[in-house]
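We examine the record.
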Amino acid sequence: MSKSLNFLLPTVGGIALLGGIAIASMHRNSGEAQIALLRDRVAEVEAHAKNAGEKVKMAASRAEELQAEIAEVQAAAQERMAQTAVLTAPAPETDEPYGIGRPALTEEIAAWDVDVLPDGRGLPEGSGNAFDGEEVFAAKCASCHGDFAEGVDNWPVLAGGFDTLGDEDPVKTVGSYWPHLSTAWDYIHRSMPFGEAGTLTADETYAIVAYILYSNDLIDDEYELSHENLGEFEMYNKDGFVVDDRPELEYTKWRTEPCMENCKEEVEVTMRSVFLVETPPEGGSKSEMNQATLEALPTFTAAGPSFIPEAAPKPAVAEEAEPEATPAAVQPTEGVDLVAAGEKVFRKCKSCHQVGSGAKNRSGPVLTGIVGAPAGSVDGFKYSKAMASAGDAGLVWETSELDAFLADPKGYLKKTKMSFKGLDDEEDRAAVIAYLNSFE
């Protein structure tokens, strides 16, 4: 019995020792895990603290930047207020310069100094003639002013009108009205072509001005316009203007305090416009005398304007009956039809030529009796040297010659003043010749 107990005691002790070791090992592993977890948490806290510190620094830096911007804005506002106070304050009496700005550079002055004076000062070097100008004019100007400077639709005419300045409705063109050629050069160079202002070279501008003079019969076909002779050129209407002396003679008489007393109790229209101006469908303008009376015009009082009487209703227009068929025996002849067609084609020529009773020379000669007449024979018209020489050589405007000339004027006769491109259609040429032949 005692031996059994002695045998068991060492065994139990060993088991207890093993259990203690196991328990100690478990406690050690648990402690290490807790230490690792704590270390991770400390690392996270340190990372968060670091990020928070960086954010605090960034916020502080941004706050400093905003403070600097606020200071700049406040300083600028104070400076503007100071400048305003200086500008609104009376200027100090001093002979010293203010020291603002700098002297303009020569290039800067030249960029602005583009005006041209009547004597030619300000003109750039260059030259041009009518023949070169015709091509430039056709490409850049003719769409508005016509091939012959006659004007298209409501765009202004640039040639002719010399015999109209004494009329109540004068035609004011570069040739008939403008007193200084420098005005034409300056305006064209700075403002034309329409929509492309400032694109013309100096030589192109000289050429266009020369073509306009040529279209007004103010120069011949060999004249070379340049910066050297433009200021010396005398325009047709150079003496047609007077000095405006109204500021000295008239302004002081009516620039006084208004009386505001004894005003009229009633105001009424006492006259009508002298002219009525309308735009015909084919373009240009048409002025007619206004023959209307003052009857039925409204009056204006403190109570208001009087009523305008209602217009009488227009009478009904009877419908036109369809024309009866013309008997074959009285049908228009082919010759009459050709003349009528030629009258329509001649509309292309009307800007330069007149025909018939009372016709006058314009930028082109009168064409009455031209068929079968010698070339260059119309009295009072200044022909080009080429046309005058052809007439002296015996050229007669027979039908065949007119047909060839109208087909290609410049190809037929070099250096002719007629810059019309010609009639390509053979029937149009035959029609217009028939129309011209109907006048004697």
Observations:
- The beta strands are 127-129, 224-226, 266-268, 275-278, 286-289, 299-301, 304-305.
- The mean pLDDT is 79.
- The first helix runs from residue 2 to 88.
